[in-house]
Amino acid sequence: MAIKDFFQKKRKYATIPSEQSKREIPEGIMSKCPKCGTIQYSKELGKNLKVCTSCDYHNKLSAFERIEITMDDGRFFEFDRDMISEDPLEFPDYVNKLTRSMESTGLRDAVVTGEGTIGGYPVIVAVMTADFFLGTLGSVVGEKITRAIETAIQKKYPLIIFSTSGGARTQESILSLMQMAKTSAALAKLDDAGGLYISIITEPTYGGVSASFAMLGDIIIAEPGARFGFAGRIVIEETIRQKLPEGFQTAEFNHKHGQLDKVIHRKELRSSLIKLLELHTVKPTKEASANG
């Protein structure tokens, strides 16, 4: 399916009563910032890469929105699109929840993997999305990311992973936790082969994802305000019975304490990736590209 198809959503209408008459306006024409409460046109917010024009809050992007603004001309060849999770533990209502997530997002699971170019440099990319099951790490997510890593090794392409996750997928129990070890082992092979791995952390990234591939990058970047860690702030405070510092687990706090290489604004992220690829890889010539 073409990427543009994911953005051509069917327009829905909501009836708004007035004193004179009722008129129809497109549903979702306005957006309210979850941080500062500013109301702005959704179209204008989209033009600003979904960054609030008032407080600079970085709203969440879907996987294909992320691909659209990152890859050259939004072009992207997707891997393993039809891979679907099963229900090996027969967890109550899991199949129905998976079905609803697939219907609402048009995706098969919480990650999209594939290849394309950024600034002319070929790359392997994995993009997680919170739209599907809160971006939880299940067996399909782990398998798709592992296969993407293996393809990066085979083709000798840089690997870029955009992470966002609520943690391990409870409904898959130990099979979910195994993905932490599987992806980490694959990344060790990429490192042994001399491959480049750039990890980009987005809001929010917790649990098994933060405890595995999200924090194993050669270069680790985060968007402004992105929260990440293993356990959440509330859980930690209730466990240690202490108040945590202001801004705890935000990208800025973690960068200050050495867990990140840099915090980069969404508007500057693509250009920053191009600079990193210029420094660490060689752009293929037209002749080399033609010869495969």
UniProtKB/TrEMBL annotation:
GO terms for biological process: fatty acid biosynthetic process; malonyl-CoA biosynthetic process. Binds 1 zinc ion per subunit. Keywords: ATP-binding, Cytoplasm, Fatty acid biosynthesis, Fatty acid metabolism, Ligase, Lipid biosynthesis, Lipid metabolism, Metal-binding, Nucleotide-binding, Transferase, Zinc, Zinc-finger. GO terms for cellular component: acetyl-CoA carboxylase complex. Residues 29-292 form the CoA carboxyltransferase N-terminal domain. Its main location: cytoplasm. It catalyses: N(6)-carboxybiotinyl-L-lysyl-[protein] + acetyl-CoA = N(6)-biotinyl-L-lysyl-[protein] + malonyl-CoA. It is found in: Cytoplasm. The keyword Lipid metabolism applies. Zn(2+) binds at C33, C36, C52, C55. GO terms for molecular function: acetyl-CoA carboxylase activity; ATP binding; carboxyl- or carbamoyltransferase activity; zinc ion binding. Pathway: Lipid metabolism; malonyl-CoA biosynthesis; malonyl-CoA from acetyl-CoA: step 1/1. Its cofactor is Zn(2+). InterPro entries: AcCoA_carboxyl_beta, Acetyl_CoA_COase_Trfase_b_su, ClpP/crotonase-like_dom_sf, COA_CT_N, Znf-ACC. Its EC number is 2.1.3.15. A zinc finger (C4-type) spans 33-55. The keyword Lyase does not apply. Component of the acetyl coenzyme A carboxylase (ACC) complex. Biotin carboxylase (BC) catalyzes the carboxylation of biotin on its carrier protein (BCCP) and then the CO(2) group is transferred by the transcarboxylase to acetyl-CoA to form malonyl-CoA. Acetyl-CoA carboxylase is a heterohexamer composed of biotin carboxyl carrier protein (AccB), biotin carboxylase (AccC) and two subunits each of ACCase subunit alpha (AccA) and ACCase subunit beta (AccD). Belongs to the AccD/PCCB family. This is Acetyl-coenzyme A carboxylase carboxyl transferase subunit beta. It comes from Paenibacillus oceani. The gene is accD.
